[in-house]
Protein backbone atom coordinates (compact mmCIF):
# COMPACT_ATOMS: atom_id res chain seq x y z
CA UNK A 1 0.00 0.00 0.00
CA UNK A 2 1.29 3.46 -0.86
CA UNK A 3 2.35 5.86 1.90
CA UNK A 4 2.81 9.61 2.01
CA UNK A 5 4.13 12.19 4.44
CA UNK A 6 1.61 14.82 5.52
CA UNK A 7 2.71 17.77 7.62
CA UNK A 8 0.35 20.08 9.46
CA UNK A 9 2.48 23.21 9.22
CA UNK A 10 2.91 25.66 12.16
CA UNK A 11 -0.04 27.81 11.00
CA UNK A 12 -2.35 24.79 11.05
CA UNK A 13 -1.21 23.71 14.52
CA UNK A 14 -1.41 27.30 15.89
CA UNK A 15 -4.94 27.69 14.51
CA UNK A 16 -6.03 24.40 16.11
CA UNK A 17 -6.83 22.88 12.71
CA UNK A 18 -4.95 19.59 13.29
CA UNK A 19 -8.15 17.74 14.19
CA UNK A 20 -10.02 19.13 11.18
CA UNK A 21 -7.18 18.09 8.85
CA UNK A 22 -6.98 14.59 10.38
CA UNK A 23 -10.76 14.34 10.07
CA UNK A 24 -10.61 15.04 6.33
CA UNK A 25 -7.83 12.46 5.81
CA UNK A 26 -9.79 9.81 7.71
CA UNK A 27 -13.11 10.73 6.09
CA UNK A 28 -11.52 10.18 2.68
CA UNK A 29 -10.72 6.63 3.85
CA UNK A 30 -6.96 6.83 4.34
CA UNK A 31 -5.23 5.23 7.33
CA UNK A 32 -3.09 6.99 9.92
CA UNK A 33 -0.02 4.80 10.40
CA UNK A 34 2.12 7.03 12.64
CA UNK A 35 1.92 10.56 13.99
CA UNK A 36 4.25 12.82 15.96
CA UNK A 37 4.52 16.41 17.13
CA UNK A 38 7.89 17.81 16.07
CA UNK A 39 9.69 21.07 16.72
CA UNK A 40 11.77 20.97 13.52
CA UNK A 41 15.36 22.16 13.48
CA UNK A 42 17.03 23.86 10.55
CA UNK A 43 18.92 20.73 9.43
CA UNK A 44 15.73 18.72 9.03
CA UNK A 45 14.04 21.52 7.07
CA UNK A 46 17.11 22.09 4.88
CA UNK A 47 16.99 18.40 3.93
CA UNK A 48 13.21 18.43 3.47
CA UNK A 49 13.24 21.57 1.28
CA UNK A 50 16.59 20.98 -0.49
CA UNK A 51 14.95 21.43 -3.91
CA UNK A 52 13.94 25.00 -3.00
CA UNK A 53 17.37 26.18 -1.77
CA UNK A 54 18.26 29.48 -3.42
CA UNK A 55 14.68 30.49 -4.22
CA UNK A 56 13.48 33.85 -2.85
CA UNK A 57 10.96 32.24 -0.50
CA UNK A 58 13.42 29.62 0.84
CA UNK A 59 14.64 31.46 3.96
CA UNK A 60 11.15 32.76 4.94
CA UNK A 61 9.86 29.21 4.40
CA UNK A 62 12.46 27.67 6.71
CA UNK A 63 11.87 30.40 9.35
CA UNK A 64 8.12 29.86 9.14
CA UNK A 65 8.49 26.09 9.50
CA UNK A 66 10.66 26.62 12.62
CA UNK A 67 8.17 29.07 14.17
CA UNK A 68 6.23 26.42 16.07
CA UNK A 69 5.43 22.74 16.29
CA UNK A 70 4.55 20.70 13.22
CA UNK A 71 2.45 17.51 13.19
CA UNK A 72 4.05 14.83 10.99
CA UNK A 73 1.73 12.03 9.84
CA UNK A 74 2.45 8.80 7.97
CA UNK A 75 -0.67 8.17 5.89
CA UNK A 76 -1.42 5.02 3.89
CA UNK A 77 -3.84 4.12 1.13
CA UNK A 78 -4.08 3.30 -2.56
CA UNK A 79 -2.94 6.38 -4.56
CA UNK A 80 -2.69 8.35 -1.31
CA UNK A 81 0.05 10.66 -2.66
CA UNK A 82 -2.20 11.97 -5.44
CA UNK A 83 -5.27 11.77 -3.23
CA UNK A 84 -3.88 13.85 -0.40
CA UNK A 85 -2.58 16.53 -2.79
CA UNK A 86 -6.10 16.69 -4.19
CA UNK A 87 -7.51 17.07 -0.66
CA UNK A 88 -4.94 19.80 0.11
CA UNK A 89 -5.62 21.94 -2.96
CA UNK A 90 -3.17 24.09 -4.90
CA UNK A 91 -0.24 25.86 -3.22
CA UNK A 92 -1.75 29.36 -3.04
CA UNK A 93 -4.59 29.19 -0.51
CA UNK A 94 -6.36 32.24 -1.91
CA UNK A 95 -7.03 30.51 -5.22
CA UNK A 96 -7.20 26.90 -3.98
CA UNK A 97 -10.58 25.38 -4.79
CA UNK A 98 -13.33 25.44 -2.16
CA UNK A 99 -13.72 21.95 -0.74
CA UNK A 100 -9.97 21.56 -0.27
CA UNK A 101 -8.05 22.06 2.98
CA UNK A 102 -6.24 25.14 1.68
CA UNK A 103 -9.28 26.48 -0.16
CA UNK A 104 -11.63 26.15 2.81
CA UNK A 105 -9.28 26.99 5.67
CA UNK A 106 -6.41 29.05 4.25
CA UNK A 107 -5.89 32.58 3.01
CA UNK A 108 -3.10 35.01 2.15
CA UNK A 109 -1.62 36.91 5.09
CA UNK A 110 0.57 39.31 3.08
CA UNK A 111 3.76 37.46 4.06
CA UNK A 112 6.72 36.41 1.89
CA UNK A 113 5.80 32.75 2.32
CA UNK A 114 2.53 31.00 1.57
CA UNK A 115 1.16 29.85 4.92
CA UNK A 116 -0.87 27.06 3.44
CA UNK A 117 -1.51 24.75 6.41
CA UNK A 118 -0.26 21.43 5.06
CA UNK A 119 2.43 19.65 3.12
CA UNK A 120 2.01 16.42 1.17
CA UNK A 121 4.71 14.46 -0.66
CA UNK A 122 4.54 14.84 -4.44
CA UNK A 123 5.91 11.46 -5.67
CA UNK A 124 6.74 7.98 -4.35
CA UNK A 125 10.44 8.94 -4.28
CA UNK A 126 9.74 12.12 -2.29
CA UNK A 127 7.45 10.23 0.07
CA UNK A 128 10.13 7.64 0.93
CA UNK A 129 12.79 10.33 1.32
CA UNK A 130 10.58 12.58 3.46
CA UNK A 131 9.19 9.76 5.62
CA UNK A 132 12.72 8.68 6.46
CA UNK A 133 13.59 12.26 7.47
CA UNK A 134 10.54 12.91 9.69
CA UNK A 135 10.23 9.37 11.11
CA UNK A 136 13.96 8.64 11.47
P1 LIG B 1 4.06 21.36 -0.22
O1 LIG B 1 5.30 20.77 -0.89
O2 LIG B 1 4.35 22.05 1.08
O3 LIG B 1 2.90 20.42 -0.18
P2 LIG B 1 3.50 22.59 -2.68
O4 LIG B 1 3.99 21.33 -3.31
O5 LIG B 1 2.15 23.09 -3.01
O6 LIG B 1 3.54 22.53 -1.15
P3 LIG B 1 6.12 23.68 -3.24
O7 LIG B 1 6.31 24.26 -4.58
O8 LIG B 1 6.74 22.36 -2.90
O9 LIG B 1 4.56 23.73 -2.91
O10 LIG B 1 6.63 24.76 -2.18
C1 LIG B 1 6.82 24.42 -0.84
C2 LIG B 1 6.21 25.48 0.04
O11 LIG B 1 6.92 26.71 -0.16
C3 LIG B 1 4.76 25.82 -0.27
O12 LIG B 1 3.86 24.95 0.34
C4 LIG B 1 4.67 27.22 0.28
O13 LIG B 1 4.55 27.20 1.70
C5 LIG B 1 6.02 27.80 -0.08
N1 LIG B 1 6.00 28.46 -1.39
C6 LIG B 1 6.06 27.86 -2.60
N2 LIG B 1 6.05 28.75 -3.59
C7 LIG B 1 6.00 29.97 -3.00
C8 LIG B 1 5.99 31.31 -3.48
N3 LIG B 1 6.05 31.60 -4.78
N4 LIG B 1 5.93 32.31 -2.58
C9 LIG B 1 5.89 32.04 -1.28
N5 LIG B 1 5.93 30.81 -0.75
C10 LIG B 1 5.97 29.78 -1.59
Automatic annotation (TrEMBL):
Domain of life: Bacteria
Cofactor dependency: Mg(2+)
Catalytic activity: a 2'-deoxyribonucleoside 5'-diphosphate + ATP = a 2'-deoxyribonucleoside 5'-triphosphate + ADP
CDD domains named among the record's database cross-references: NDPk_I
GO MF term list: ATP binding; metal ion binding; nucleoside diphosphate kinase activity
Positions bound to ATP: 9, 57, 85, 91, 102, 116
EC code: 2.7.4.6
Uppermost EC category: transferase
Pfam family for this entry, one: NDK
Positions of the Nucleoside diphosphate kinase-like domain: 1-136
UniProt record, GO biological process: CTP biosynthetic process; GTP biosynthetic process; UTP biosynthetic process
Keywords annotated in UniProt: ATP-binding, Kinase, Magnesium, Metal-binding, Nucleotide metabolism, Nucleotide-binding, Transferase
Active site positions, chain numbering: 119
Similarity comment text for this entry: Belongs to the NDK family.
Protein name as annotated: Nucleoside diphosphate kinase
Amino acid sequence: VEETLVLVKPDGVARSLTGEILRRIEAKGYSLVDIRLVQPERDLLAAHYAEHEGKPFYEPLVEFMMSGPVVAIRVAGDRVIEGFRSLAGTTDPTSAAPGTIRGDLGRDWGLPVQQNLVHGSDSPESAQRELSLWFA
